[in-house]
Design a protein that fits this description.
The chain is an alpha/beta fold. It has four domains: 137 residues, 3-Layer(aba) Sandwich (Rossmann fold); 64 residues, no CATH class; 165 residues, P-loop containing nucleotide triphosphate hydrolases (Rossmann fold, 3-Layer(aba) Sandwich); 53 residues. Helices cover 40% and strands 19% of the residues. It has a six-stranded mixed beta sheet, with helices on both faces. α1 runs parallel beside α4, α4 runs antiparallel to α5 and α5 runs antiparallel to α8. The chain is globular. The termini are far apart. Bound molecules: guanosine-5'-triphosphate and magnesium ion. Guanosine-5'-triphosphate binds next to α9.
């Protein structure tokens, strides 16, 4: 049952669902999802966009499958407002409890974030583990992190998610056993006390800082040869890694599972003009990307923040690609990368019906491709060339007031600094910066 809060005046249908025992067992430990309750977000009116509860439930299904779960039933509820104690109504909870007992479900997934107390209250009624959307995403990240850096970042996000949830349930949580939401480095810490967790958080942060320093050194070495970085960003599963492989003749993992990519990869490629560029493939975005993850993945996402050009990859075959774009936009904004020059790539056009495909027209800002079939890639590379040419770095002298912290930070991030002097509240800099950045700083450019 999907809950729609009518007070928000949204459309969307009420989809009923029964218990349908899944046929195939999940790969590792079969985890049964007894019920997924879909709610529209009440706490973030900004980017809830036009995802209907059905779209949302489709996505939850894909997320659950990516976490290795087998779905055995679904529920949705339509409601005027959330119940503060249990989010959904008592009657519906009882119904879920009955259904989940009858199929011996291991887990009940909620397509909504639950407060620690809501989670506890619901668990008390349904007698199985209850996991919310954030925890599910954290779990997938934990499964897919391959590098030390990725693992550290996920662990930090997991620890920060768990801390407020420990009160009064340390014992239960330490006896969870296998399954969704128990995965990854976070779980071992549950057996210990809060103080130890704080200590662990500090330790992990320290280690992430070290990784970050190494990454910064590598970047500096890279940037001593001026080659522009082009970052591929987009909703999870849009085809970023497939496109990355096609553009750089690489072989990074591309998969129908969500969040297949966690660790950033950078590869060089030649553009048609013979100009060298670095393409960077990175983690995908999703609606309501848990905040702990965005901040934990800051080091990874620095590649996006520093890119000269952002290629925004969308899945043209997805009925909700427009809504997904809204979400991508909001994450780019959070990363302060929304002003970087951008090229829109509509991917997977091979999946569109022929008539629709023929009507597509590329423009300066948008290119239609099929990364897996290799369609439209030369047009794409031409566009990248042209956009980088238009955004060629220029060497300038700037006098920026010291109180312009944000602009100075942008300059540090996006330009090569040759010299820096402080005079009477001003910073005098010799720098080489792309045209797009200089436009933002033009009132401080002196020559
Ligand atoms: N039909 C079709 N499928 C594609 C195309 N590009 C990618 N795919 C498929 O889409 C799925 C996701 O592709 P990925 O390249 O892993 O997507 P991603 O954006 O890197 O996803 P995450 O790293 O998980 O965020 C895979 O099953 C790909 O085979 C395309 O042009 N056409
Ligand atoms: Mg990927």
């Amino acid at each position: 049952m999907g809950v729609e809060f009518r007070t928000r005046g949204r459309s969307g249908k009420n989809s009923a669902a029964g218990i349908t025992p899944g046929a195939q067992a999940a790969r590792d430990h079969a985890t049964n999802v007894a019920a997924s309750s879909s709610f529209l977000p009440v706490d973030s009116p900004d980017v809830s966009s036009d995802f209907t509860s059905e779209d949302s439930l489709d996505e939850l299904r894909a997320l659950a499958t990516s976490a290795g779960a087998e779905i055995v039933g679904e529920f949705t509820q339509r409601k005027d407002r959330p119940d503060p104690a249990t989010l959904i109504g008592k009657g519906k909870l009882e119904e879920i409890a009955g259904a989940s007992a009858s199929v011996s479900a291991d887990v009940v997934l909620f397509d909504h974030d639950l407060s620690p107390s809501q989670q506890r209250n619901i668990e008390r009624v349904v007698h199985t583990r209850v996991i919310d959307r954030t925890q599910l995403i954290l779990d997938i990240f934990a499964r897919h992190a391959r590098t030390r850096e990725g693992q550290l970042q996920v662990e930090l996000a997991q620890l920060e998610y768990l801390l407020p949830r420990l009160a009064g349930r340390g014992v239960e949580m330490s006896q969870l056993g296998g399954g969704i939401g128990t995965r990854g480095p976070g779980e071992t810490q549950l057996e210990t006390d809060r103080r130890k967790i704080y200590r662990r958080v500090r330790h992990v942060k320290q280690q992430i800082e070290n990784v970050r320093r190494i990454r910064a050194q590598q970047r500096q070495r890279r940037e001593s040869v001026p080659v522009a970085t082009v970052a591929l960003v987009g909703y999870t599963n849009a085809g970023k890694s497939t496109l990355f492989n096609a553009l750089t003749q690489s072989n990074v993992v591309a998969s129908s599972r969500m969040f297949a990519t966690l660790d950033p990869t950078i590869r060089a490629a030649d553009l048609p003009s013979k100009r060298k560029v670095l393409f960077s493939d990175t983690v995908g975005f999703i609606r309501h990307l848990p905040h702990t993850l965005v901040s934990a993945f800051r080091a990874t996402l620095e590649e996006v923040q520093r890119a000269a050009l952002i290629i925004q990859v969308s899945d043209a075959s997805s009925p909700i690609s427009g809504e997904q774009d809204v979400q991508v936009e909001s994450v780019l904004k959070e990363l302060e990368a929304d002003k970087t020059p951008r090229l829109r790539v509509m991917n997977k056009i091979d999946l569109l019906p022929p008539r629709q495909r023929e009507s597509l027209r590329d423009s300066d800002a948008t290119v239609h491709v099929s990364a897996s079939k290799g369609i439209g890639l030369s047009t794409l590379l031409d566009r990248v060339d042209a956009l980088l040419e238009a955004d060629r770095p220029r060497r300038v002298r700037l006098r920026v007031p010291q109180n312009q912290g944000k602009l100075l930070a942008q300059l540090e991030a996006g330009a090569r600094i040759y010299s820096r002097q402080y005079q009477d509240g001003l910073v005098v800099l010799e720098a080489e910066a792309p045209a797009s950045l200089l436009r933002r700083l033009r009132e401080w450019v002196v020559e």
